[in-house]
Amino acid sequence: MRSAYRVETVRAAERVLLASLPEGALMARAAAGLAAACARLLPGGRPRRVALLVGSGDNGGDALFAGARLARRGVGVTALLLNPERAHPAGLAALRAAGGRTAGADAAEGVLGRADLVVDGITGIGGRGGLRPGAAELAELLDRAGEEGPPVVAVDLPSGVDADTGEVHGAALRATLTVTFGACKPGLLVDPAREFAGEVRLVDIGLRPELPAEPDLVALEAADVAALLPRPAAESDKYRRGVVGVAAGSERYPGAAVLAVGGALCGGAGAVRYAGPAGAGVLARYPETLVSAGPPSRAGRVQSWVVGPGVGDDPNARATVDDVLAAEVPVLIDADGLRGLDPERVRARRAATVLTPHAGEAAALLGGDRAGVEASRLGSVRKLAERFGAVVLLKGSTTLIAAPGGGPVHVNPTGTPWLATAGSGDVLSGLVGSLLAAGLAPVQAAATGAYLHGLAGRLAPTPATATTVTAALPEVWDQLLSATEVSSEG
Ligand SMILES: NC(=O)C1=CN([C@@H]2O[C@H](COP(=O)(O)OP(=O)(O)OC[C@H]3O[C@@H](n4cnc5c(N)ncnc54)[C@H](O)[C@@H]3O)[C@@H](O)[C@H]2O)[C@@H](O)CC1
Ligand SMILES: [K+]
């Protein structure tokens, strides 16, 4: 499991470590890791040039010490000092002693134009708000160079992004690689900041033992998901494996029913019941489904319900959602089911509720606009989870899952923009509902479902469609299960 920690937590851990180490030791560890990562990106066989962008804090200090290490290996290093009188004094002395040069920001265009690599040490975890004008100009200069420009290695964080929230207010440095120290920060895993970070590499500076057991953000890895996947035991029957009910689709949108049932069949439950007006289409595609045309409460025993995809917005649809909300089993609500959803009604439920909005639906539930949700994904998902007393899976460029009452937010690492295709969300709702029926805890079901769905989106032939994503799901299971069998044998 990958973990990320907020700045406050990282700083507290650093203080403990700093007190036990000689002065400068921690920065030396950071700079050594940074210099090694930079050296790997430099071309071989000719004189090489590195430009350091140096702000006035310790982030600039890291860049200067790493620059000194590179200069000692024969690299031509020039530090562009944004604030020369406030640049890290010991770092500056080390760079100069190693033969590195310094220049003011007015020399930026020439220095950056000749550089094979740029090291962004303007701000790290001490950055506040959008970049100030001098720094913003450097970001714009590099942005203009685009693909033609040199690769940028961000020190700890791309300057200009918010470490805790992943928000970006104004200009920020766009990195090829971010070398982060001690612990990953939430912003490196959450859009829009994540897009600025490029590849993220963690350098161990000895912080781990000082960090709390519970991170602020977590991302499941393949082995975690494989361990969570429900497997049938020898004595299993369909109820022991779980039966999931799907109340989706309408005469107008029969396809949503088929897609949600398809996702549910690939989620590990022992059987899928379908309740609604699109039964004929569902049966034509999936004859193993137990179909009924009446309300969900008369469909027979289930261990979870999925409601909402394609139900439309007429009174029948509302009645279906109400009927499902009255059930005493975990319920997943998606799409049309989220429209006008009453927070008090959801909070009053005794069994778990999982909501799976995209940014537009989340904005409607919060009474804001879509752009606001996209700019502040972490804040939005937490707020929704609290307001509804439900687990919320916020779909999108980085899918996030939050539970009410706090605890780590999950970020899904397998997403792909190819999943932004009609009906893909219907498949996800069935998949997560099925994992709920199989007995996974709501957060685990949501995080596992998002992981499987993302991998299927990557495996499906390009361009992925909701149908090909569903078809790829068995292969995703296969890959995850066979990987754990190999690792448990070895
Ligand atoms: N504390 C520690 O023990 C360690 C810290 N390290 C480094 O130190 C960094 C934190 O250092 P600092 O606390 O000095 O803070 P930073 O260096 O991240 O940033 C603070 C400086 O940036 C300026 N600044 C703030 N917001 C700005 C903005 N929007 N635009 C332009 N300039 C802005 C401030 O005036 C201040 O001078 C970490 O990110 C990491 O790179 C590492 O050396 C590892 C050890
Ligand atoms: K930086």
TrEMBL record:
Keyword Metal-binding annotated? yes
UniProt keywords (A-Z) are: ATP-binding, Isomerase, Lyase, Metal-binding, Multifunctional enzyme, NAD, NADP, Nucleotide-binding, Potassium
Please report the stretch or stretches of sequence annotated as the YjeF C-terminal domain.
221-480
A GO biological process of this protein is: metabolite repair
Entry-linked SUPFAM superfamilies? Ribokinase-like, YjeF N-terminal domain-like
**NCBIfam families recorded:** yjeF_cterm, yjeF_nterm
Task: Give the protein's function.
Answer: Bifunctional enzyme that catalyzes the epimerization of the S- and R-forms of NAD(P)HX and the dehydration of the S-form of NAD(P)HX at the expense of ADP, which is converted to AMP. This allows the repair of both epimers of NAD(P)HX, a damaged form of NAD(P)H that is a result of enzymatic or heat-dependent hydration.
Q: How does it assemble?
A: Homotetramer.
Q: Identify its protein family.
A: Belongs to the NnrE/AIBP family. In the N-terminal section; belongs to the NnrE/AIBP family.
**Mind telling me what this protein is named?**
Bifunctional NAD(P)H-hydrate repair enzyme
What's the gene?
nnrD
